[in-house]
Amino acid sequence: MKRAFPKTLPAILTAFLALVGWEVMVRLFGVPEFLLPGPLAIGAAFWESRGLLLEHAVPTAAEALLGFIGAAVAGTASGLLINRSGLAERALYPWLVVSQTLPVIALAPILVTWFGYGMLPKVLVVVLFCFFPITVAMVDGLRATDPDLIRLMRSFGASKGRIFYMVEVPGALPFLFGGIRLAVTYCVIGAVVGEWVGSSRGLGFLMIQDKTQFEIPRLFAEIALLSAMGVSLFLLVALVQRLVAPWTLERGR
Amino acid sequence: MKGVRGLTNVRPKLAASGAGIAKGGVRILEGMDLEVEPGSFLALIGPSGAGKSTLLNLFAGLEAPTEGSVEKDGSPLLRPGSVAYMPQSDLLLPWRSVLANVALGLEATGVPKRVARRKALGALEHFGLEEFAKVFPPALSGGMRSRVALLRTTLLGRDTLLLDELFGALDALTRRSLQGWLLGVRAELAATIVLVTHDVDEAILLADRVVALTRRPARVGLDLPVNLPRPRTMDAETTDEFIRLKGRLLEALGAAG
Question: What is the pTM of this model?
Fold first, then answer.
């Protein structure tokens, strides 16, 4: 407990200095607020509109979280399928790679046309953003099983099924969590992109409005809020990893 | 000439006759004849790449010979699962505690988890290692890891134990202490043991019989009975008989190299 504070101190200090420097510069050079508001102005805008921001943060967070969970499930499942079936690998894997070359941002308007202005198209955009790194991580993780370990299990007389769930799946978890941690940083971006394309609520919707109405300090407050949301989700994943598979966090051997 | 040292009235525990294996056109093993008497401790020694580990894999049923035959108790070894086999590295699973690692072999063969864990705890207690039951492998020393891996292998209760360079990855001191430990618990391990090693001293110290293989394709270069009395301790290493045996073995290995 004693060490926790000194460890995070440098990062906090960096942020503090950057904010102070920013505020000083803005005041010193008299930068107009509609170009670049200072941190204090942003903070004030945040406090003033806290009810509105919170109201719009809820759907965005819900889209990001739902999409991320969908991506985690779909990514893990497709990774398992690709590993288990050579046919599935040959039939699906190349197309999964190709699907990643499609710009999801360009697909978003099509999804809105198909599924309307509700939550579904945003959740789908998040899934498209997030699931590929998870699939690849799962496939790589299962493939990375130590062949000696499989031989050991065979020498015990273990069936293929037991080898799979006793050794291959748990062995893939460090890879899977690597993919999930990468994916979770995309999910807020996915939700905002989905909202930009067509929505009537959410922080992405609010951003578009504030931009056209020159509510620049609040626009910055929204960006800060989105960032905080992403960091929280990342920490949540780290917490889940610590609870589910603490051994994946240990260094070396 | 077949069945070197095989007593005519005792069926060998393990037998290779004319066994050979070729991988990708390379002959790793050719015309290998070797019998292992039940209840004996055999050490296999030889230059790197002589095919010692390959021979062990054949006896483990992990690989099938492409020529000749490999038998256990007189019937061909067709699949793994009838002998206990311990590979070169300990391969402890980092997500399993020591207790769960020791139980792994039993669980892998379908023994219910609770039964397997209870047996594993019994084995740990028997060898005085119960205080490590809840520890996870990254926190163990190299010597302790080897002990845990050996317990995992012996818990299967199979009558034959194949050890591939058992202490190969350990430093010299840890290795000596484990050799002493192994001598002490020899009687409680499986009846028949085959050990692959690079270490001449280790081979003579632990085994009843040392077989030196020649360079690839491997053949039996020297078949040396070790008649040091049992129970043995590390002190056996300083006896005249030990030194005489070591001389013969080194000479044979020198000729092989």
Answer: 0.83
- In this complex, the residue of B91, B93, B109 whose CB is nearest that of residue A157 is B109
Q: How many structural domains are present in chain A? A: 1
Closest in B61, B95, B137 to A245, CB measured? B95
Q: Note the ipTM here.
A: 0.86
Q: Give B124's contacts (C-beta < 8 A, 6+ positions apart).
A: B98, B99, B102, B130, B132, B133, B151
Identify residue A214 by its one-letter amino acid code. F
Cβ atoms within 10 Å, residue A17: 10
Closest CA to B62 of B34, B82, B90, B88: B82
| Residue at token pair 């205080």 | B131
pLDDT tens by residue, chain A, 253 residues: 455 567 889 999 999 999 999 999 999 999 998 899 999 999 999 999 999 999 999 999 999 999 999 999 999 999 999 999 889 889 988 888 888 888 888 888 899 889 988 899 999 999 998 999 999 999 999 999 999 999 999 999 999 999 999 999 999 999 999 999 999 999 999 999 999 988 889 999 999 999 999 999 999 999 999 999 999 999 999 999 999 888 888 754 3
Please check whether residue A183 lies inside any domain of the structure: yes
Q: What is the DSSP letter of A159?
A: -
Longest dimension (CA), chain A: 77
Question: A252: nearest CA in chain B?
Answer: B138
Nearest to A142 by CA among A197, A91, A81: A81
Sheet holding B209-213, edge to edge: B84-86, B160-164, B192-197, B41-45, B209-213, B220-225
Of 1.20.120.140, 3.40.50.300, 3.10.20.30, 3.30.565.10, the CATH number of B14-92+140-256 is 3.40.50.300
CB contact under 8 A, A149 and B91: yes
The first and second tokens of residue B251, run together, are: 């000479």
Sequence-separated (6 or more) residues with CB below 8 Å from residue A38: A22, A23, A26, A27, A31
